[in-house]
Amino acid sequence: MTKSSAPQRAGDPSSQGSRPAVGVNKGLLIGLAVFIAAVVAVFVFRAYHMNTYVIPSASMEPGLQVGDRIEIDPTAYEQAPPQRGDVVVFDGAGSFYPYESETPTKRFFDAALQLLGMAPQHNAVVKRIIGVPGDTVECCDDNGRLMVNDGSLDEPYLAEPDLSASSTPFLVEVPDNRVFLLGDNRYDSIDSRALLGAPGGGMIQKNKIYGPVISTR
């Protein structure tokens, strides 16, 4: 009769496969944590970078002063269209802002930032919407106020409330998908009035609006 082999205990090396060293996965966990932190940082920076702007000129005084930092809501117009009176930031490239020549290096870095959703918005402009599609905007009534659809417009935000709402007369009809914009500081603002003879008549396509200003600091 053959002797049966002794039972193996759970702790015996011969009863288990070789265990992976505890430190083997530690490096992977650290790397994963660093990656997640970097992704979160990119999205936080992206949200801040894309939605905040610094006022560079006096065209929106007195409400917005030079150096003010403003924040927009980029999703505000997903459900509702822009409204008269909204102060908005928009892409002025080709209209309010001249075209800029770009070097290959600049295009490369801008393309890289675009992949991260952080492409710089060099042509951002801030103005107030005065006319929306279908509106007729005219300067001015007998009291120097703008007229929208034959009604006089009350503008308590103007920098020069005792002067005419515009130094130059005009009459425009706002076409579909565009808005007519003016600065609050009418005597120190390049806006839709200055581009009435240009393609588009100085009116901005609605899809060029980044969003309305929601806070100032």
UniProtKB/TrEMBL annotation:
Keyword Protease: yes
Species assigned in the record: Enteractinococcus coprophilus
Keyword Transmembrane: yes
Domain of life: Bacteria
CDD domains according to UniProt: S26_SPase_I
Protein name, as recorded: Signal peptidase I
Domain Peptidase S26: 34-213
UniProt keywords, alphabetically: Hydrolase, Membrane, Protease, Transmembrane, Transmembrane helix
Pfam families noted in UniProt: Peptidase_S26
